[in-house]
Amino acid sequence: MKLIDEKGKLFGKINAIDCCVLLLIIALGIGAYVKFGMEKTSNSAAMKPISYSVKIEKVRKVALNNVRVGDTIFDKTSGNPIGTIVAVDSEQATERIKMPNGTIVRGDVENRINLILTVEAEGVVNDSGWFVNKTYELLVGSKKKFITKYFECEGSVNEIF
User: Fold this and answer.
1) Residue 121 belongs to domain with CATH number
2) Are 17 and 77 in a shared domain?
């Protein structure tokens, strides 16, 4: 018995093109499951406290009044809560300035501050990284859009401890 007969059927029963299309659909289904269906962390992984700091640069001083200890912070893209603010600090905003003689110095930015928020959340720590609520990955230096009840900004994860 031949693998493909004179009519183009595989084992005399199924068309070879139909078989290829079926294999392609199965491969796409498996790929979609791996990409979107599998969670990054195990469901049985124990949640533990994660603390991290967020630095928000060059905002007006009035922004300090809109951020309070105890506020829940959300990821603007997903809308999911990613922790509770436990400390709010500020520092004078600075930037590099090129002087007329060609040297570069740091100078204060008038009427602007940098906010440093310390956030606590429940999450999973494993070999792949830090995951708040088992799905939101924390990466030092990553820029994200954050919102609270009274404040919206773009900042970066400064430190994870």
Assistant:
1) 2.40.30.110
2) no
Question: How far is 109 from 6, CA to CA, in rounded Å?
Answer: 80
- DSSP H helical segments within the chain, as ranges? 16-32, 63-66
Question: Rounded distance, CA 65 to CA 125, Å?
Answer: 33
Statement to judge: residues 148 and 83 lie in one domain? yes
DSSP-assigned states of every residue in 68-90: -TT-EEEETTT--EEEEEEEEEE
Query: For 45, which DSSP code?
Result: P
Question: Among 11, 44, 30, which residue's Cα sits nearest to residue 124?
Answer: 44
The span from the CA of 37 to the CA of 161, in Å, is: 30
Are the beta carbons of 115 and 71 closer than 8 angstroms? no
pLDDT tens readout for residues 9-55: 767 777 777 778 889 999 999 988 887 776 555 556 788 999 999 99
Tokens of 65: 């009044």
pTM of the model: 0.69
For residue 147, the SS3 value is strand
d(CA 161, CA 156): 15
Q: How many domains does the chain have?
A: 2
